[in-house]
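README, section 4: Worked example with a bound small molecule

Sections 1 through 3 covered apo chains. Here we extend the same pipeline to holo records, where the ligand is supplied as SMILES alongside the sequence. The molecule in this example is pyridoxal-5'-phosphate. Nothing else about the input changes; the structure line simply encodes the ligand pose together with the chain.
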Amino acid sequence: MSGLDNKVGKLLRPEVLALSAYHVPDAKGYIKLDAMENPYSWPEDMVAEWLERLRGAEPNRYPDPACADLKAGLCQANGVPAGAELLLGNGSDEIIQIILMAVAGPEVTILAPEPTFVMYRQIAVSLGLRFVGVPLREADFGLDLDAMLAAIATHRPAVVFLAYPNNPTGNLFEAADIERILAAAPGLVVVDEAYAPYADASFMPRVLEFDNLVVMRTLSKLGLAGLRLGFLAGAGAWIGQFDKIRLPYNINVLTRISAEFALEKLPVLDGQVRCLLRDRAVLAASLAQFDGIRVYDSRANFILFKLLKHDAPQIFQALKAAGILVKNLHPAGGPLAQCLRVTVGTPEENQRFVEVLRALLG
Ligand SMILES: *Cc1c(COP(=O)(O)O)cnc(C)c1O
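The generated complex, written as structure tokens:
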């Protein structure tokens, strides 16, 4: 070890040194079906109108720290109940970080079912918090309610994260199970609705019904991943405290103006979502026809599948060699062994993926 490595290793917390960085592969030139992006761009006249709106931006000034108009637009578009307040984040990733910074301390535990969105664990560990993952049922990736309730009783978590629908499995947990968890949890329960546009189920209308519930959403999976805008809805008592930790200018001027504009054009994005829902069904049906694949039900814009007769890492590499990028979940192990996750793309992209896969599965 060099002298510098030694210095770094001495100064930084061991949990930081032990982390591996969140790896994002270079996707240039690939059919990109790995990151739950909406594949559609905007019609040309809409792009022109957007650029015209951006003309009004003042990059020499700090951005608006309150974003009142944007929040009003988000509340309306997302059915946020009257009386609930919003916290905006640079993606919902930042909101996870804000929540965990607010509870961080010695002996504090964060809990989530697993497999789930990896940032809950990653951010908790980076802040020196204990993270408890409770295995989902292997058969269908549903919540193991008894195990969840037992873990909650044992570990008394400050925060429970529930991705609804879950990533990378794509399923929705039972609403009744989430109600039981809300009743049992001594701390906050974050229902993460990143895939709300595709799910047709939500706790948003009920966010004020439980005093320990907050609901998190993002514009990323709807079709605005590049803007980095997520939000948390809940009682002012929670949101006001979290807002103290938010850096004052976390929403930049280009994001604010672009998101306000996109919310005015919601029918365009909703139309894209309808196409993706239709194509999710087509893609799932195509995958289900293959012998040797188990397809999991999805309420999101991606599909998880397990290879029963082939090696997932090998198929992943062969897809990549054919110019198609999906997510290889095999390295996560456990119930995700031999699993790949494909994002729903355009009909042409989906078809190409299915054709290549067909050739590979022989
Ligand atoms: C993608 C994803 C997020 C992160 O969304 P950003 O707003 O882009 O940071 C959060 N939660 C889940 C479950 C996700 O899949």
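What to look for in the output: The chain has a mean pLDDT of 97. Residues 36, 91-93, 117, 163, 167, 192, 194, 218, 220, 225, 230 surround pyridoxal-5'-phosphate (CB under 6 Å).

Section 5 describes how to batch many such records.
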